[in-house]
Amino acid sequence: MLNSLLSYGWASSPQRLVVAGAVTIGFAMLARALRGVDRSGMFAGGAACFLLFAGAGPSGFAILAALFLLTWISTRFGYRRKQDLGVAERRDGRNAWQVLANLAVAALGSLAFAVSGNHVWLLVATSALAEAAIDTVASEVGQTRCRTAWLVTTWKQVPAGTDGGITPSGTVAGTIAGVVIAIVAAGGGVIPRTQFWIPVTAGFVGMLMDSVLGATLQRRGKMNNETVNFVGTLAAAAMAYAISGA
Fold first, then answer.
1. Residue spans of alpha helices (H) in 77-119
2. Model pTM greater than 0.90?
3. Is residue 30 classed as helix, strand or coil in its secondary structure?
4. 55 CB-contact burial (10 Å; exposed 0-12 / middle 13-18 / buried 19+)
């Protein structure tokens, strides 16, 4: 039943569904063992991983693995300083809402491809993952390398870690992370190499949207961080869809 629903995806046979499930379980357990996620985050991440693998196949999983590695390293980079600033990630990892805020749009894009066979949804999914990488790495590196940031809405200096604040070093590091995601996607055939630039561009714009919302609605208590992150990935996905001309 499930494999017939995913008829256009990689896991279009019972055997491939088993492979996708086995890889998902292994990846979720590894993420938990590395304290990248807590127990709830493990299950949420596992669901997202399964949809990405079932739709986009091993190459889709490779993009997710690259995102996890980039965010895991950047989160732990300069951890002591982040603790001093009060912006350090929890030691037991991200919870389900934090995970879904970054992965839900990409997972749904992969599912849409598996159901419809329209490759634009793989571009959408890749762009959402690129935004998650750019935003997370930019924030984590910027908080470590800089003591001050610039508020994206007014360009006034604010302490590093302030919602909506951006830094030069963080922006550069985040953009590199987005490029890595695009390279993995293009190299694995998830997106055409001629569209390599779209996830990077859409991801960067999504990151800026995230920063604007952080500087306005989040600072006023009208949106929480998870909602802001979700909207950022959604904005990147929407821009990629628009650019593709689908």
1. 79-85, 96-116
2. yes
3. helix
4. buried
